[in-house]
Amino acid sequence: MNEVLIDEFCLGYYGYGELCSKYWFVGIEEGGEKSANDFYKETIEKWDKKPTSAIQDDDINKGAWKMFFSPEAKKIQTTWRGIIQLLLSLENKPIDRENILNFQKHRLGRENGNNLLLELLPLPNRNTAKWIYSSYELPQFSSRIKYYRHYTPKRIKQIKELIAENNPEVVVFYSATKKYIKDWEEIIGIE
User: Fold this and answer.
1) pLDDT, averaged across the chain
2) Nearest residue to 111 via CA among 165, 42, 60
3) What is the three-class DSSP state of 126?
4) Model confidence at 5, in pLDDT bands (50, 70, 90)?
5) Closest residue by Cα to residue 183 from 125, 120, 116, 117
6) Which residues fall within 8 angstroms of residue 99, CB to CB, at 6 or more apart?
7) DSSP reduced 3-state for 27
8) How many angstroms from the chain centroid is the CA of residue 104?
9) H-type helices in the chain, by residue range?
């Protein structure tokens, strides 16, 4: 594994969609089922060094693509349901299962879309209690706490800069966990 590339990814990749989007949604991190080694091979090695990428093909996560984004997808992803409902509401569109699923399959985090899905932390994790990246041989990956302490201040600064540069109309932070509320407050500069 190229440890420099891993660090560059952690400092330079934020999520899916367009930076010029009107609506930004900032979460803690992506969920994920992959091992650290699989994530490295399937995502970090293929990363094109842009801060965001549009969800458009199955290079990012074949399982997630098939389940949620392919034309055949039938399942609505739980976290994105609320985001999509808000976006449909802002567009004065009916909020029903068909419209939610259609938005997920064709418009969520897409190129030339009106929304951007950003993550405070770059590495996907199934839950915050589990840490799978200690095999990455830099000291900041030895534990979740070290990872959080190393990358969060840098990414908060970068997200603030991205917001200032791109001036989205709405920024929604979606986690009410006390620990992360402080991060959201630091990004926006108020309680």
Assistant:
1) 89
2) 60
3) coil
4) very high
5) 120
6) 88, 93
7) strand
8) 15
9) 3-12, 36-39, 62-64, 78-90, 97-106, 144-166, 178-188
